[in-house]
Specification:
Length: 471
C-alpha cells in the first residue's frame, strides 16, 4: 500500500442505510442520492474525482458508513487506493476529523527535555504472550531423546467405521473469503477493477455466513410455523419475509401458507395472481392430485400465487366472507402431505385461536417454531401466554428450540419493554432477534421486498439464518 503525505487535501463522505449520502469538500456539504447504496458510493467517488481534477492532484477521502471508516486516496484519473486500514464502527474515533492528520506542514519543534520512556502497550502484550511459553519451557522437565516414544497407532476395531469418500470430502479446507463486495471496501474493488481488493469487513463476513446458513442442505422438506395468538403481532409479515428470504437465497421451492381456519390476510399481503383460488380450492381437488403420482409443482400453480423475484409461492386461506368452508386438523394434514411433495420449505402463518384443531396440527408438524411479537405489552403478553400453553401441551422441546422475533412497531422503541421481552424470551427459546420498523410495511398492502430499507433486509436475513439453523 502506498504511503501518502498528510498534506493532501481532505474530503469527508458518509453513506446512510437509506441510499442517501453526503460528501464535504472544502467545507461545503453536498447531498448525494442514488437508486441504491452502491450507486451512492460511486457518485461520491465521481464527485471526489472531479475535486481531484480541479486541484490537479490526488485527494484524501475518509469514507464512513454504518460499518466503519475507510481511508482512501482518489486520483484525478479516477484511480482509488486504500490509504490505511479499515476502522470498524465499534473502534472508530468520535468524529471523522479526529481520524485525519492536520493539513498544515509540520514545524520544526524545539528540543524538549528527555522524558522517561513510556511502555508501548503493543510491546507489553507481545512480551506477555511470549513470556508464558518461555516460562513453560523453563519449568518443563527435560526428557532424554532416548525416552521419546511414538504415539500408539490405533487400528480399526470391529465396532469402528473406516473413513469413506464422504469423510474425505468433508475434510476439504474451508474456502477462503473472496474480495469485498459491500461497503467502501467493495466500492474500491469495483472502482479499481480488482487491482485493489480489500478483504471483506466483519459485517460482510457475517452477512455471507447468514446466507450460507440459509442455503444449508436439508435432508427433506421442512416446516416452519409462525405463532402468536394476538392479532397484529407481525405474523403474516414475518411469514412472507421469511419465505422471501429463503426463496431469494435458496432459489425457490418455498411456500408461504396461510393456515387460518377461515379468512386470513396473507392473500392480501402477497402479490396477486391470475386466479383467486385458495387452500379451500386445493383441498377440494386434493384427491385428484394425490391419486396422480405424475403431478408436478406446475399443477399446483392453479392454487398458489407466484411472488416473482422473491422466488416463493403463497397459498391463501379462504377469502369468501359469505363462505362456510373452514380448515380443520384433518384438512391441514392432507394439505401438508401433498404440499410437502412439491416444496422444500413450508412457512406457515397461523390464526389467533390456539384451540383450533388446524392450529394444533400445524404445531405438531413443525420442525421449527417462530414466535413473533411486536414490542408492545399486548402482543408480548400473547407470546408469553403462547409459550406457557405450548409447554403445558407437551411441546416443551419445541419451545426450547424456538426462535423469537421482536419487531419494532414504530421508529422509536420502548427500550425498557424491549429489555423485558428479551429477558423473558431468552430464558424460554433458543434465540431472540430484533427486526426494525420499516415504513414500507405500514400500509399493509402487497409485500415488495425491494422497497425495504437495507438494514431491514439484513435483519430478516439474519433472522432467517437463525431459523435455518434449527432445520
Amino acid at each position: 500500500m502506498t504511503q501518502h503525505t498528510p498534506l493532501l487535501p481532505r474530503i469527508i463522505a458518509f453513506v446512510g442505510d437509506d441510499s442517501t449520502g453526503e460528501v464535504t469538500i472544502d467545507g461545503v456539504r453536498q447531498l448525494v442520492a442514488a437508486p441504491d447504496e452502491a450507486g451512492v458510493r460511486e457518485e461520491i467517488i465521481a464527485r471526489v474525482t472531479s475535486a481531484a481534477i480541479r486541484i490537479g492532484g490526488p485527494v484524501r477521502l475518509v469514507a464512513e458508513d454504518s460499518q466503519g471508516q475507510s481511508p482512501l486516496i482518489v486520483y484525478p484519473d479516477g484511480r482509488v487506493e486504500s490509504d490505511g486500514d479499515f476502522v470498524p464502527a465499534s473502534e472508530r474515533r468520535s468524529t471523522l476529523a479526529d481520524a485525519l492528520p492536520e493539513l498544515e506542514p509540520e514545524l520544526e519543534a524545539e528540543p524538549e527535555p528527555e522524558a522517561a520512556p513510556v511502555a508501548d502497550p503493543i510491546l507489553s502484550i507481545l512480551a506477555a504472550v511470549t513470556a508464558a511459553p518461555v516460562a513453560a519451557v523453563a519449568a518443563a522437565p527435560i526428557t532424554k531423546p532416548t525416552e521419546r516414544r511414538m504415539p500408539p497407532v490405533s487400528l480399526p476395531t470391529s465396532g469402528s467405521t473406516t473413513p469413506d469418500l464422504a469423510d474425505f470430502l468433508k475434510s476439504r479446507p474451508q474456502e477462503t473469503a473472496g474480495p469485498a463486495e459491500r461497503g467502501w471496501q467493495g466500492t474500491v474493488s469495483r472502482m479499481t477493477g480488482g487491482r485493489v481488493s480489500p478483504s471483506p469487513s466483519r459485517i460482510e463476513v457475517t452477512h455471507r455466513a447468514a446466507i450460507a446458513a440459509v442455503q444449508r442442505g436439508l435432508s427433506g422438506p421442512r416446516t416452519i410455523v409462525v405463532l402468536n395468538p394476538k392479532g397484529g403481532a407481525h405474523k403474516t409479515t414475518a411469514t412472507l419475509l421469511i419465505a422471501a428470504t429463503f426463496g431469494i437465497h435458496r432459489g425457490g421451492y418455498t411456500l408461504a401458507w396461510d393456515n387460518n381456519e377461515t379468512m386470513g390476510t396473507l392473500g392480501v399481503r402477497a402479490q396477486g395472481a391470475a386466479h383467486n383460488n385458495t387452500a379451500v380450492d386445493l383441498l377440494r381437488d386434493l384427491d385428484r392430485l394425490d391419486g396422480d403420482r405424475t403431478v408436478s409443482v406446475a399443477d399446483v400453480d392453479r392454487y398458489v400465487r407466484n411472488q416473482g423475484d422473491s422466488r416463493f409461492d403463497a397459498l391463501a386461506s379462504d377469502q369468501d366472507p359469505a363462505g362456510a368452508a373452514s380448515i380443520d386438523d384433518v384438512a391441514f394434514r392432507k394439505l401438508h402431505s401433498t404440499l410437502s411433495r412439491f416444496y422444500r420449505i413450508l412457512v406457515i402463518d397461523t390464526g389467533n385461536n390456539m384451540r383450533a384443531s388446524n392450529w394444533e396440527a400445524a404445531v405438531e408438524t413443525a420442525d421449527q417454531l417462530v414466535v413473533v411479537s411486536t414490542i408492545r405489552e399486548d402482543t408480548g403478553y400473547g407470546a408469553a401466554s403462547l409459550l406457557d400453553g405450548l409447554r403445558q401441551k407437551g411441546h416443551a422441546d419445541k419451545v426450547a428450540q424456538a426462535v423469537t422475533l421482536l419487531a419494532s412497531p414504530a421508529k422509536r422503541v420502548d427500550n425498557k419493554l424491549s429489555r423485558r421481552l428479551h429477558d423473558h424470551f431468552q430464558q424460554l427459546t433458543r434465540t431472540v432477534l430484533d427486526v426494525p420498523y420499516d415504513p414500507s410495511l405500514v400500509a399493509g398492502g402487497p409485500l415488495n421486498i425491494e422497497a425495504l430499507a437495507p438494514q431491514t433486509r439484513e435483519a430478516w436475513l439474519r433472522a432467517t439464518a437463525a431459523i435455518a439453523e434449527g432445520l
